[in-house]
Amino acid sequence: MKNLSPRLEAVASLVRKGRRVADIGTDHAYLPVYLVQSGVADFCIAADLRKGPLENAKKAVEEAGLEEKIILRLSDGLQKFEPDEADEIVIAGMGGILIAQIIEAAPWLQKGGKHLVLQPMSHPEVLRKFLITNGYNILCETVCEDAGKLYCVMSVEFCGEYIKRPAFYEYYGEIPQCKTELSEKYLSNLAFRLSRDADSMRCADPARADKLYKVSEKIETLIN
Ligand SMILES: C[S@@+](CC[C@H](N)C(=O)[O-])C[C@H]1O[C@@H](n2cnc3c(N)ncnc32)[C@H](O)[C@@H]1O
Prior knowledge:
CATH topology of the largest domain: Rossmann fold
Number of strands: 7
Distance between the termini: 38 Å
Bound molecules: S-adenosylmethionine
Number of domains: 2
Shape: globular
Helix content: 40-55%
Strand order of the largest sheet: 3-2-1-4-5-7-6
Largest sheet: 7 strands, mixed
């Protein structure tokens, strides 16, 4: 079995066993191949917006001899999916804004039983804000380190309710609950970055700078 990168390993760790998986933006299909080979999933749809990545995916699936269990699909987000085809939806390796747009364009994700594993490469705060204002609940998050960078991965379900969250929740989500060395490092890097951004905009946009200082201070209080 091919080893996954630490980032994709963290994504795989949140995928629920025995469910039909859709991997959106699959590229090389490493994740679906791993999920089937390791017995986490029996069936995956590996989807991508572009033909080039799907060619890579085809090669990987054929090399693994998994053509019966991994179907390839050209699709912009979940546009070419029927609601009943998958119950575990993975969207990894894209920006948080694009991930939010893909979810918004597929309202059938709000049907009961769907579970989302989301791994934003940027703007996780925009993705969290979208999720919590649209009735999605972040069940837990994990933090991984890959090639010197830290990433969060979210386990998400639709609950349809407005849940009151603490101030600035969109910036840190469920990461404080992880209580691992990496999650603490993630939070302290984030607090540092926000306060540095605030410093740089103190004159140009004092109101925004003030907010970022407050977020940074709040995050400091969440670090053990
Ligand atoms: C950086 S790769 C990530 C591959 C893999 N998911 C991972 O996490 O390593 C991003 C992939 O998303 C695909 N992509 C970008 N926008 C997309 C969209 N709207 N729908 C489906 N796939 C998309 C790209 O073609 C590319 O193959």
